[in-house]
User: Fold Anti-sigma regulatory factor (Ser/Thr protein kinase) from Methylobacterium pseudosasicola.
Amino acid sequence: MDRVTITEASQVAEARRRAVAAAQAIGFDETAAGRVALVVTELSTNIVKYGVPGEILVGTFEDATGSGVEILALDKGPGFSDLGSALRDGHSTGGSAGEGLGAVRRLSDAFDIASRPGTGTAVLARLSGVRPATADGSAAFGAVTVPLRGETANGDAYAVRERLDGWTAIVADGLGHGPEAAKASQEALSLFHHHRDKPPGAILSAIHAGLPQTRGGAVSVASFDRDAGILTFAGIGNVLGAVVSGAVTKRTVSLAGTAGHAARRIQEFEYPMGQDDVFVLCSDGIATGWSLDAYPGIAAAHPSLVAGLIYRDFARARDDATVLVVRGDAS
Assistant:
């Protein structure tokens, strides 16, 4: 994902430029790219007026709901005491070109927001090049993944394979950061796709066997069987997972080592997981003590918004950072 820090008004134009470039790169026409420009302008202006410092994250998405541009606006400002009023069309977020968050919601094909007084605001907007006639289900997963500041190559990578009976997911964190870390994590993803029909332990074993010519890294693989209500997890290193079930967060066990170089053993662990639960998988660019306790019920939100909140509140400044969120009811 591309990241723009927002601290003053001149950065609104930079956020808009990068978002439009991302849209054009995947084939958006002038009208569709114009919608992206309006949404990013509104969200960036909102941060300037009420939430500095904040961030705009721009990426692309492709899943069962479609494909397009994904935008996250994250700040730690005062938040909204009356979210309903803020979402009304015509309620300006501060003199911007459009009509505030209501306009953002109207222009977006998927929209979600979390805001509490004193904790800031997180807004998600997804836009497709061709607007669907009707909404086609909810997103099964969402993620935030950004490189260390100052780097263009991201040493983290993730993937999700959706199945009729559940899903299989991976997060790989190449050792260190920069291009060589990115090479290791991308090779891990290639091996994941090749062995994706196997159980997590077998996938992880194949990745470990296939990374010796790279730096290696931390890798975790999880698979959810919806009918059995069981999540199976295997990890090497500090890519850590958790099942969030209501107010209870159950952390998964990942064993010490470096995939591709040193792993004394690879072991699967099983955890109960319901269709209303979410699974969260984070690289070590996210503090291990992350929690969603400040946002009761947030697990029901769009998974990209959940990922954005965890990133905003718990990202470390010293490394690439990835948060992957997958829903139990994903199909």
In short: The chain is about 25% helix and 30% strand. Residues 92-98 have pLDDT under 50 and may be disordered. Residues 141-327 form a domain with the Phosphatase 2c; domain 1 fold (CATH 3.60.40.10). The first strand starts at residue 2 and ends at 6.
